[in-house]
Amino acid sequence: MTRAWFLPVVLVLCGAVFATALIVGGSPGAAAVGALAFVVLAGVNSPLIFPSSIGAQEAQRRSAADGRPIVYWRPGCTYCQRLRLRLGRHAEQAYWVDIWRDPEGAAAVRVVNNGNETVPTVFIGGEPHVNPDPSWVRKQLSASA
Fold it and tell me: Which residue of 16, 44, 51, 87 sits 20 to 30 Å from the alpha carbon of 77, by its own alpha carbon?
């Protein structure tokens, strides 16, 4: 859990230091804009933009029952963010497993990636797809709905 929030916390702290320096330098408007930019970056790099994560076992059980895809991801991963943002409202149609919170999820990803924790790894119909094109995943989600 600590790893998931490390980058967002660092970004907020850097934004605070940056804004303080601009305020001391006499630029409160620029400080506000800079602080807002750092807060937005922290939000995008946080687990908050992702649907609720569940454990790998629960995701596998549910996916076996209803055929919905499983997306293994981790906070701070730009490819995971790209997938999540490009899926838009369709992201809720998949089960999301945060590999930093779930050791079994991390193990499932390592099995298909030669020991590496390469994410996003999307399982559709039991087949793993490493860093798939978001438009392709969206089509798969639409087809399974």
Answer: 16
pLDDT above 70 as % of the chain: 96
Query: How many structural domains is the chain composed of?
Result: 2
Examine residue 120 and say whether the peptide bond preceding it is cis (omega within 30 degrees of 0). yes
Closest CA to 91 of 63, 121, 71: 71
- What are the CA-CA distances from residue 30 to residues 8, 34, 66, 131 (Å)? 21, 6, 50, 37
Mark whether 16 and 60 lie in a shared domain: no
- SS3 call for 54: coil
Residues 85 and 126 in one domain: yes
Query: Which pTM value belongs to this model?
Result: 0.73
Query: Could you please report the per-residue DSSP string of 81-131?
Result: HHHHHHHGGGGGGSEEEETTT-HHHHHHHHHHTTT---S-EEEETTEEEES
